[in-house]
Amino acid sequence: MPDTASALLTALPLASVLIGRNERILGMNGPARALLGSDSEGRHFLTAIRHPAVLDAVEGCLHDRQPRTSRMLTTEGGQDMTYELHCAYLSIPDAEGVLLSLEDITRVEQAGQMRRDFVANVSHELRTPLTALLGFIETLRGPAKNDAEARERFLSIMAAEAERMERLVADLLSLSRVESEERMRPTARVDLTALTDSVLKRLGPVAQARGVELGRNLPEDEVLVPGDEDQLRQVLTNLVENAIKYGGSGGRVDVALEQRADVPGLRGPGARLSVRDYGPGIELVHIPRLTERFYRVDSHRSREMGGTGLGLAIVKHIVNRHRGRMKVESEPGQGAEFTVELPARA
Ligand code: ADP
What we know:
The protein has helices at 3-11, 30-36, 45-48, 52-64, 106-141, 148-181, 192-209, 229-247, 299-304, 311-321; strands spanning 15-20, 25-28, 68-76, 79-92, 95-104, 189-191, 213-217, 224-226, 252-263, 268-277, 325-331, 335-343. It is an alpha+beta fold. The strands form three sheets. A five-stranded antiparallel β-sheet has the order 2-1-5-4-3, sandwiched between helices. A five-stranded mixed β-sheet has the order 7-9-10-12-11. It has a two-stranded antiparallel sheet with strand order 6-8. The chain binds adenosine-5'-diphosphate (ADP). Adenosine-5'-diphosphate binds at residues 238, 242-243, 246-247, 277, 279, 282, 290, 296-298, 302, 307-313, 336.
C-alpha cells in the first residue's frame, strides 16, 4: 500500500479499511485487522466483511462518490453486536477508493434497549394496580352502589392497590436519586452499630408478626464509616425486610456487624454487615440477576408480599456509591446470606 494511504489509516482511531476502485482491499489499520482478520489485504472486500449493508454502502459510494452511513448487526461469539459504518470517497495522489470505518456502538444500543425496557416495565407495574382501581370504582358506581358491606371490602382492596402504586413511585424516586448521586462519595460519619440497632428495633414488630426471631450480633463499640445515613438505613431495611419476607419460613433471621482491619475486597479496613435467613434460599441461576430492576425469582410471591422488584437494585446503587461491595450466597433449602462490605476510610 502507498505510504500516504498507510499513514492515513494508521492515524485513524476507528477500525478502517481502504477499498480500491476495483473493490479490493488496499489496506487496513490495526483495529480493522483485529476485527476482520489480518489476511484480507488484496482480496475483494466482501471476503472480509460479508454483509449486505456493507455491500450497499461501499458500492454506492464507489459509484457516486457520496458519503454514506449505515448499520451492521452481527453476532460475535454468541453476543449481538452493532456497528455503525461510515463510507467516504477518498482520492489522494497515490490511492483512490472508499474509506470504510466501523464504529462499535453495541453499548450505546444496549443502553437504549435498557431504557426502553425500563419504561415498559414501569408502565406495566403501574398499570396492574391502576386497572384494579378503575375496575372497583366502576363496580362501586354500579352493581355495588348500595351494598355497604361490599363497599368496605372494595375500599380496603383499593387502598392496598393505591399503596402499592405509592411504594412503586417512592422506590422509583429513590432509585433515580441514588443513581444521580452515585459518583459523589458520601462524607458524613455514620455509626453502623447504632444504625443497625435502630433498624432492628423498628423491624422487630414486623418480624414478630410473621413469627420470625431476629438474632443480632453487634459489636459493643461504634463502627464508623463515611456514609449517607438515610441510604445506609435503606440498605439495612431492604435486606432485613427481604429476609423476613422471603426467608421467614426458617423462623429466624440473623443480623451481624463487625469491624475488620482488612477486608480483602476493599483492600483496607472496613465494616462487614450480614443478613442471614434460613428460608428456601435462592437458586444459583438467579443470584447474578437479583439486583436488576424488576427482577424477581417468584413474581407472584413478591407482589403478594408487597414487593416492587426494586429493593435490591436500590441496595446495589447505594453500596456502589459508598464504594462498597455486596455479595449474595445461598444454598437452596438452607437459606440465604446477603453481605455488604463498606470501606472505613473515605
Ligand atoms: P422485591 O420488591 O420483589 O422484594 P427485591 O429487589 O428486594 O424486590 O428482591 C428481588 C427478588 O429477590 C425478590 O423478588 C425475591 O424473589 C428475591 N429475594 C430477595 N431476598 C431474598 C431472600 N432473603 N431469600 C429468598 N429470595 C430473596
